[in-house]
From TrEMBL:
GO biological process: chloroplast relocation
GO cellular component, one term: chloroplast outer membrane
Organism: Oryza sativa subsp. indica
Protein name per UniProt: Uncharacterized protein
UniProt keywords, alphabetically: Coiled coil
Superkingdom assignment: Eukaryota
């Protein structure tokens, strides 16, 4: 009985400690929240002229090309970083949120596409790699193109309409812009894929290797078809 009583006392002490920890955490969170709200209040009261000047800059902003948009967004983000919390402060002002969001979206999308275009166009097939590994690398690149570019193409008309509403250049979204360059780069990627397949087919001689040859050939045809389906030369002429 004494042993059980001691066990119960220990359990009670542990429970009391847990409750105390929870209470301390709650008090800490409340204090942190209060400090944050106070900092926001100070920014709202003291940074009004600064925020209004930025808002006017956003409303009046016009651009010749998408690179101007990127530069403007970088500048704006740097200016807004001086606020304790951008959204918490800006909601107290007449801030052009829709245009700001559209500018950021266009700038980030364009920069992501540039990175993808460079990655695909600069891809070099390393002959030292095993065929399977090399084909996997090219297939992975094609998947990135499909996920990024072809997803964008499905909503391109809507995006163009939205960007034009805010004076954002849209030529980069056309087949003559960076989107078109990625399509062309994917065609070149397909050629590299087929060249690797052809090299491997030449190395697979003998009747016993025929199933492997057929499988490789099928992989090559599927890869080329996927590229042509979304970004082949016929569609690029438009």
């Amino acid at each position: 009985m004494k042993r059980e009583a001691k066990k119960d006392t220990t359990s009670l002490g542990s429970t009391t400690s847990s409750v105390s920890d929870v209470r301390s955490n709650m008090i800490g969170e409340i204090e942190n929240r209060s400090t944050f709200l106070l900092a926001v209040k100070v920014d709202v009261e003291t940074q009004g002229d600064f925020v209004e000047s930025l808002a006017n800059e956003v409303r009046a902003a016009s651009f010749v090309n998408i690179d101007d948009v990127v530069a403007f967004v970088n500048w704006l983000d740097e200016e807004l970083s001086f606020l304790v919390d951008e959204r918490a402060v800006l909601k107290h002002f007449d801030w052009p949120e829709s245009k700001t969001d559209a500018l950021r979206e266009a700038a980030f999308e364009y920069q992501d596409l540039l990175k993808l275009e460079h990655k695909v166009s600069s891809f070099t097939d390393d002959p030292k790699l095993a065929c399977e590994e090399a084909l996997k690398k090219m297939y992975s690149l094609l998947e990135k193109v499909e996920q990024s570019v072809y997803a964008l193409l499905r909503t391109r008309d809507m995006a163009i309409s939205r960007y034009r509403e805010y004076g954002i250049p849209v030529d980069w979204l056309s087949d003559s812009g960076v989107v078109g360059k990625i399509k062309l780069a994917s065609v070149q990627l397909a050629k590299k894929y087929m060249n690797r397949v052809a090299t491997e087919l030449d190395a697979l001689q003998g009747t016993e290797k025929e199933p492997n040859r057929e499988f490789l050939l099928l992989q090559g045809v599927r890869f080329a078809f996927r590229v042509h389906q979304h970004g082949g030369p016929r569609r690029l002429r438009g």
